[in-house]
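tokens incoming
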């Protein structure tokens, strides 16, 4: 009886879900998913390698980009085992503590990415609004501190999430809506009071993603104000062109994130398809598109990549 009560309080495992209504096609869906994971991991690792090997790219803008690529790699690695297990092998079980660990890493890397995007916005702000002090403000030690602060904030804010979930009884169901563990999804399976979890989750969103997005918008408002006062049209376009890649990356990250948060908190759907679709867009497309955006839109990265490929071919 003690074992029954213990399992009633804390299930030994959860069951992950794929895409509702397309269960018979999961094996075929696994093919593009595998390709996307390959592009995400190889693309971001290539960005890191290129920046590390080229001393001309050891500048604040590219160091922050390597941090972003490392975060995207961590995000992909966090979800890859369970997603491919579900779609490729139809293995849906995930151990309870393993689920909490995966959830922690997914949310931690998301918070870190948001902080790094803010740091990149600050980099563009200093470069355009105060270029003479650029190297004085963004020193290597300060960049390192900003990176460590992003990691510390992510770990510190997200560490209570699994602890708060672990204290709850789970007696409604063990079936999750996604092919990975996501905090709102796991939280809804609890049959105890989740008011603390809801309040803390909302606080996390406001204190990390909310604050970051406000400062990013403020940075670009100041950048736009500075650009408007540049005398030549060519100078204005050149200044704005240095921000295009970052703006696209911010939109890729924040638009699905905001949509997913709204769906989980205020969306009422009979079908779980909207939840699944937006969560997959957020977790899969961001690591895939970021290296492609910077490879296409950033001349220095593109040139270094071409040189690296030419050397490989010659060898």
């Amino acid at each position: 009886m003690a074992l029954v009560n213990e399992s009633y309080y804390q299930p030994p495992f959860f069951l992950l879900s794929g895409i509702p209504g397309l269960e018979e096609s999961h094996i075929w869906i696994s093919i593009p998913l595998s390709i996307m994971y390959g592009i995400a991991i190889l693309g971001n690792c290539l960005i890191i390698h290129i920046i590390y090997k080229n001393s001309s790219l050891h500048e604040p803008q590219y160091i922050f980009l390597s941090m972003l690529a490392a975060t995207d790699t961590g995000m992909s690695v966090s979800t890859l085992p369970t997603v491919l297990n579900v779609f490729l092998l139809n293995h849906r079980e995930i151990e309870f503590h393993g689920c909490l660990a995966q959830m922690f890493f997914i949310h931690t890397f998301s918070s870190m990415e948001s902080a790094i995007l803010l740091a990149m916005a600050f980099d563009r702000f200093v470069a355009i609004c105060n270029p003479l002090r650029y190297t004085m403000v963004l020193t290597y030690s300060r960049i390192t501190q900003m990176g460590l602060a992003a990691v510390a904030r992510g770990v510190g804010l997200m560490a209570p999430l699994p602890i708060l979930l672990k204290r709850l009884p789970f007696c409604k169901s063990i079936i999750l809506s996604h092919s990975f563990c996501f905090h709102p999804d796991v939280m809804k399976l609890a049959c105890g009071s989740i008011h603390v979890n809801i309040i803390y989750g909302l606080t996390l969103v406001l204190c990390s993603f909310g604050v970051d997005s406000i400062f990013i918008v403020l940075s670009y408002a100041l950048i736009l104000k500075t650009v408007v006062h540049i005398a030549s049209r060519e100078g204005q376009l050149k200044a704005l062109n240095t921000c295009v890649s970052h703006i696209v990356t911010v939109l890729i990250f924040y638009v699905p994130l905001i949509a997913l948060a709204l769906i989980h908190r205020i969306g009422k759907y009979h079908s779980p398809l909207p939840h699944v679709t937006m969560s997959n867009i957020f977790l899969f497309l961001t690591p895939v598109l970021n290296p492609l955006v910077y490879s296409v839109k950033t001349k220095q990265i593109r040139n270094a990549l071409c040189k690296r490929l030419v050397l490989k071919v010659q060898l």
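note: The chain is about 75% helix and 0% strand.
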